[in-house]
Amino acid sequence: MSVNDVKDVIMIDDDECQVTEDDEIAAINYELQQIESEMQKLRDRKKILTERKEKLRDDILLKKSFSLSKKDWNNANFDWSARLQKTLKDVFKIENLRELQLPTMNAIMSKEDVILIMPTGGGKSLCYQLPAVISKGITIVVSPLVSLMEDQLHGLNRLNVKATMLCAKTDKEIVKMTMDALINKNSNLKLIYVTPEYMAKSKRFMSKVQKAFELGNLERFAIDEVHCCSQWGHDFRPDYQFLTTLKSLFPGVPILGLTATAPAKIIVDVQKMLDISGCLVLRASFNRPNLYYEVRRKPADKKLCLEMIEGLLKNRFSGKSGIIYTTTIKDAEQLTTNLREKGVKIGCYHAMLEPEYRSEVYSKWISGKYQAVVATIAFGLGIDKPDVRFVIHHCVSKSMENFYQESGRAGRDGRKAVCLVLYRLADVFKLSTMVFQDRVGLQNLYKVLSYCLNQTSCRRSLIATHFEESWNESDCVQMCDHCRKPEVKKEVDVTQYCRQLYQIMTKAVQNDTRLTALKLVDAWYAKGASSLRVSDVPVPKFTRETAEAIIGHLLVNGYLQEDFHFSSYSTISYLKRGPKSGLALSNDHKILFNYELH
Ligand code: ADP
Ligand code: MG
Ligand code: ZN
Hints:
By secondary structure, the protein is an alpha/beta fold.
């Protein structure tokens, strides 16, 4: 019925009964709401179709790349094969190459542009270090982290490979030596490590690189953490923008991009930025068969939570070595103190501690004096302990990439290890206020949230899907909580709950109050401020945890969204209706959730 129809009805009825303006407004409102909901549906559909179109275009480019990878790069019949094997043993003291190392080296030695996607710790650096040693000219390695470059430099110097590094802090002597080497055809300098900032800022350096190129002295570029080029990545860096000029400045000089970030969208974007679209893309598997993945509900009560961790350390992980990750320095210190009071031998590690103290903690852990280290994510770079048997996340990670990397420090020796996440919705809101200003911060966080909320799927299949790897049900062999104890859960319709939450939110708006998730749940359970409660909304028959899970599900799927406000001391996350609220209110729409409501 349109507004005109309404008018007609009003005209006819005018004689008998008085239809007021209020009635007409109500009718119009009803229709407007319907239009809004239709529009929302169309917008959602448009979004889905646009994304699909982009995905198909990206797939075409990636297919081109993969067809290049069909060529047999994994053989020992290249001109350099013998030299490569000899240098591997004599210089690097390594017996065997790992998955994809040989194909990468052969391809870049053949002057192909390559992107290598390999999990952290897989051995990406060797893929440019070894070719650098057996090539005549200079390899320029761009890397964003000075401390990691220093580590590599020390390593190479020990092996008697000549390498140097340029960053804002480099002293003049070394800068001069490096600049001279670039324009000296007989120099034995093999690798120059450089930060992207330095490259973008130093005209002197770039003019020497230009000379090196003209002299035929510039062998190739290796770009570490190459995903930083892409705005879609989890840590886009403006200085990487400068690298987009390399291909046109130095035509014919091969580029090797290295990353542990896999999504096709990012890889395609990186290829476009570096002007190497359709280059060879080599992708190592992210599956770690010896890691057991598990998610547990984290008790809201601090004391219960502490007892749970104590129990784990004293029983299940007794005599085993591990890491417990927390989000904040305060949490790390608190948890360390509490666990020490319980008699657990444990160290604490975060960025605010003195370097000497940190290395002491590290060595006590390595030597087994500490069973575990309670750490912020500052603990990670350069960890080289093969027998880490458990990694506990005391708070969820910021992204699946972070989670994979942090949990992946377990079981480097190939033996079984456990990756356990303690999940609680409140922790997600603690993180969201820290990441919401990043372009894709919330999107990344919500991926972790849905990993934790999932009650049925194989954890490994969720991880594989995230890293865009194909996956078979049988690949897990009971190495995750859900595959060990499979439970069939029916999809439940949670639309009514969503609408009830909207009712509570509407009332709050009328009262000029904002609702945090905690207040929202309180009001739902008829607790907290009475002005926020809505009498027609029944108190849920399920637990608060289930209520939180429903809220998490609505958030991940766009029926709710976070609304951030700054107070004098902190940022607070409130909840409001999400972009899909129109859909949630339309009659024929159902919000399904694969979860047991109890
Ligand atoms: P990534 O950059 O992929 O995170 P790295 O290049 O830092 O990984 O390598 C991780 C570790 O693996 C280093 O200690 C390195 O020496 C070692 N490594 C690399 N390749 C091999 C190999 N083929 N055999 C044994 N160790 C290797
Ligand atoms: Mg690396
Ligand atoms: Zn599984």
